[in-house]
Amino acid sequence: MNIIEAKDVSVTFDSYGDVIKAVDHVNFVLPKGQTIGIVGESGSGKSTFARVLSGLQIPTSGSVTFMDKPIQNGKNTYEGALRKEVQMVFQDPYGSLNPRMRIVKAIAEAIRQHQGLDKKASRVAALDLLESMGISNLDAQKFPSKLSGGQRQRASVARALSAQPSVLIADEPTSAIDQSAQAQLLGLFNDLIKKGLSIVLVSHDLGVIRYLSDYVYVMKDGIFVESGKSEEIFNNPKEEYTKKLISSIPGRSTK
Amino acid sequence: MLGNHLLEIKNLKIDVRVTKTRRLSIVDTASLIIEPGEIIGLIGESGSGKTMLCRSLVGTLGRRGAYIASGELKFDGIDLITAKQSVWNDIRGKRIGYVPQSALAGPNPVMTIGAQLAEAILQDENFPKSDVEKRSLELLNIVQIRRPETVLKQYQHELSGGMKQRVMIACAIAQQPQLIVADEPTTGLDVTVQAEIMELLKQIRKDFNTSIILVSHDLPLINEICDDIVIMHAGTTVEKIPSKSIKASKHPYTLALYNSRIDLVLPKGQLKTINGQPPSVGSWPEGCRFSERCDFVKDKCRTKQDLPLIEIGSNHQTSCLRYDEIAR
Question: How does pLDDT run across B201-257, given as a tens digit for each residue?
Fold first, then answer.
């Protein structure tokens, strides 16, 4: 069963009279409980497409459905009960948390909003959630500026999960943090996958994509040039572009 | 005793002024030696002091309120710690080129690329002004920028990330320096662009016999292009090892870093992570600063002591007290 489906989606932007096709008539499916990787270079349109899936960007043409229901209603997306089903984790852990709110307060607010708990209960739930993300109760009392990039990114994931979504869309979650923090974050995603969460993972880091994804879409200039099962794409790429991407992974050529 | 190396850093200590009397060490007992034509990779987690060490090589520590507290720092026989401004003017940009962090904010936004290259070229006061454009085009050709004539007239926002980084490298090599310090040159760039920039750095080394210090937190990348790797943790250099023998590392931190690579495990396999968080500046443990996170820790690691790099093999130095007991 497909949880999200995108049909013939295009996004165009106007730029001084020119029309730029950021996403050009693409089709996409996210089956329940799977992890889909979208990989491509900067400017290939992968972030724009992720924003379309999460309802932040309204497509110029085409449609996105969630459980066979269109997500868009006029200018609004994901209305009512649908709102909490799809959550996003952003690229920049330094810019995506409110610098004037303690971590626990930021998470508790999201829980209060989405789960309808009162102030006290939401705080307890927030501490529990952060604990399960590997952020201790002590660290949860701190402001974002006192935490490392990896901890902040885990707090961002916690905030996304506070809505108890069925789909998580992660736009380059690991590109701003260093290697050991990356390993911790990927381990966390792995646990979430085991719990049955469906994930759309956008990245230009093929190592990350290979590690987590079941199915991979390769994006170039706004279209998917290749898609297939993760092992197939990495072991037996068909398109020249995919081959070039894979051969650029550091350490790949020396093995 | 300092010999005839291109660059020699010994037990360098860099402090920052926090208040009038309070000082914090951000780099302590860092040692590094570079020979002509060598590519050294400097690797460590965020906040391990990599960037500050690089800044000490171009004399811009003062802008961050930091200064060298003790240690030795010699470039081609010149003592850089006591060097006057006039000496720095002959070294910075001319004999040591610097490619700063974050390519995307690199070039000056209100100068054309041509004006910026001209500035880099005219650091040499004897350079004839009539040849500046020719030399600029030559530099852009070296860094393999297509349509160099157009690029000279453009501003940085008109270029892609990879091109901006190439321009920064062109500025750094304008005076044919003996050493290039590249501080995370590919962070935030795509893998394909990253591969191209690395090729370019290798080509520059080959053509001009330039030494390069490449700073990164990406171990597979460093491992692929560098001759030797220097690993930093909490402000100190913990190990120096030839990149070929990285697997035979004798420091638990290097091993932990190596084992946290995601390309070593099968998809969705168990990743090995490094325990805990890097210790923050000002609260480093006494003795070995990795002791709090180390799997091999013994009581003797925790006692207060200096941990210099010990020579344990050809070109292989480690600061671990228990190096002879550590096996993979």
Answer: 999 999 999 999 999 888 888 888 899 999 999 889 999 999 988 888 889 999 888
- Residue A148 falls within a domain, yes or no? no
Contact: A179, B268; criterion CB under 8 Å: no
**pLDDT score at B9:** 92
pTM here is 0.81
Shortest alpha-carbon distance between residue B139 and chain A (Å)? 25
Residue B263 to chain A, least CA–CA distance (Å): 6
A 10 A CB-CB count for B132 gives: 16
> Whats the size of chain A, residue-wise?
255
What is the interface size between A and B, counted as CB pairs within 8 Å? 102
Mean pLDDT, chain B, rounded, equals: 87
What residues have CB less than 8 Å from B39, skipping those under 6 apart? B201, B202, B205, B211, B212, B214, B225, B226, B227, B228
C-alpha distances (whole Å) from B102 to each of A199, B202, B288 are 30, 20, 31
CB A249 to CB B191 under 8 A?
yes
The domain that contains A226 carries what CATH number? 3.40.50.300
- Residue A142 within any structural domain of the chain: no
Q: Which of B188, B191, B256 sits opposite A245 (nearest CB)?
A: B191
Tell whether A145 is within 8 A of chain B (Cβ). no
Query: CA of A218, closest CA in chain B: separation in Å?
Result: 14
pLDDT at A10 over 90: yes
Decide if A63 is inside a domain.
yes
Task: Express each pLDDT in B93-107 by its tens digit.
Answer: 899 999 987 666 778
Residue A254 has pLDDT above 50, yes or no: no
- CB-nearest partner of A250 from B160, B188, B224: B224
* Residue B222 host element (H or E): helix B219-225
- Range of the structural domain that residue A223 is part of: 2-101+163-247
B208-247 core/surface letters (b: 16 or more CB in 10 A; e: else): eebbbbbbbbbbbbbbbbbbbbbbbbbbbbbbbbebeebe
Mutate to test the interface with B, among A179, A212, A215, A239 (most CBs of B within 10 A): A179
pLDDT (0 to 100) of residue B232 = 92
Task: Mark which residues 35-64 of A lie under 8 Å from B by CB.
Answer: 41-43
Q: Give me the mean pLDDT over the B177-201 stretch.
A: 86
Q: What ipTM score was computed for the predicted complex, to two decimals?
A: 0.72
* pLDDT tens-digit readout, A13-28: 887 778 888 999 999 9
Q: How many domains does chain A have?
A: 1
How far is residue B295's CA from residue B254's CA, in Å, rounded to a whole number?
A: 12
Which carries the bigger pLDDT value, residue A253 or residue A242? A242
Whether B160 sits inside 8 A of A43 (CB atoms) is: yes
Which residues of A67-214 form beta strands (DSSP E)?
Answer: 69-70, 72-73, 76-77, 86-89, 167-171, 198-203
Q: Which residues make Cβ contacts (< 8 Å) with residue B67, sequence separation at least 6?
A: B14, B15, B16, B17, B61
Instruction: For B49-93, write each residue's pLDDT tens digit.
Output: 888 899 899 888 887 788 999 999 999 888 999 888 889 988 988
**pLDDT (mean) for A131-147:** 87
Residue A113 forms part of a structural domain: no
Burial of B46 (0-12, 13-18, 19+ CB in 10 A): middle
